[in-house]
Specification:
four-stranded parallel β-sheet; 14 strands; 9 helices; five-stranded mixed β-sheet; single chain; elongated; alpha/beta; Ubiquitin-like (UB roll); 18% strand; binds zinc ion
Length: 281
């Protein structure tokens, strides 16, 4: 650019390109963009996504003039699905807010906290109680089907396909992969911290306040189809004598024909659904 010499690897914009806050004390910025410095502070569970030096304290982060809050937060490692409230200089703002402004203070609160109240002003709509689970959450998917929640699961979905399906069918993405939650098609999602599937179920029940003990027809654990009651005599030829002796109520999947009854597995799952996250087995 005429009149201004930029060092190698830097681009200098004309004064009209530069936000007023940067026009004084001009200095060149890398990556061909002028950046604004904002102070970020993440609260509670959101710190899990940050490197140690950034946890529990304010730190300065450079944002591009046209960068959205959502992009800035995700570039720091925190999926937008986990964010419940953002204050910019003390005022609640939406995730699409821009620009952040030079010297702005950004406070980011989680959508959900294990301890303590959830912020009263939420950013996102309530996540839909229809789910799509990623390839590593097969057991959680089956538990949710058992509890009657419509849950898609396949162990071979590419991320882009899963995210597109979640958007098209308005489903909440369940995953332990934060990159998946940052996919542009993901609107609603839950990052699951627990590794053990029953703990994951308790975590989800607590976070979304699922009424998992309400009477609701279970879905087929294999194919997600709502189960239908089946007469004992209609399914007797497919059951072991011991099962027939111990149980009188049966259900059948209208799609794949699998037969269900309330055995030990059922009792375990009911117990798990009745306990809050972190409440132990
Ligand atoms: Zn089925």
């Amino acid at each position: 650019m005429a009149g201004v010499r930029a060092p190698p690897g830097f681009t200098v914009f004309s004064a009209s390109d530069v936000p007023p806050a940067l026009q004084e004390g001009h200095r060149p910025y890398p990556a061909s963009e002028v950046h604004l410095m904002s102070d970020f502070r993440f609260y509670a569970e959101l710190n899990d996504f940050l490197p140690l030096p950034r946890r529990g304290r304010s730190f300065t982060h450079a944002v591009a003039p046209h960068e959205s809050l959502k992009h800035a937060i995700e570039s720091l490692g925190v999926p937008h699905t986990e964010v419940g409230l953002v204050l910019l200089d003390g005022v609640p703002v939406g995730l699409q807010h821009r620009p952040l402004g030079d010297g702005g203070r950004v406070a980011v609160y989680p959508a959900w906290q294990t301890l303590g109240p959830v912020p009263a002003v939420g950013l996102a709509d309530v996540p839909p109680r229809r789910f799509i689970a990623d390839a590593h959450l097969g057991r959680l998917a089956r538990y949710l089907r058992f509890a009657g929640y419509d849950t898609l699961y396949r162990n071979d979905w590419p991320d882009a396909e899963l995210a597109a399906l979640a958007r098209a069918e308005d489903r909440t993405v369940l995953t332990r992969d934060r990159d998946l939650l940052m996919h542009r098609d993901v609107v609603h999602g839950c990052y699951l911290r627990a590794i053990e599937p029953l703990e994951q179920l308790r975590e989800l029940v607590a976070r979304l306040r699922l009424d998992a003990r309400a009477p609701r027809a279970s879905r087929c654990l294999l194919c997600n189809t709502p189960l239908a009651p089946a007469a004992k005599e209609a399914v007797a030829d497919r059951l072991l004598p011991r099962t027939l002796a111990d149980f009188d109520e049966f259900w059948r999947c209208p799609d794949c024909e699998r037969v269900y009854w309330r055995g030990l597995h059922w009792q375990r799952l009911r117990a798990a659904l009745g306990k809050p996250a972190g409440g132990g087995a």
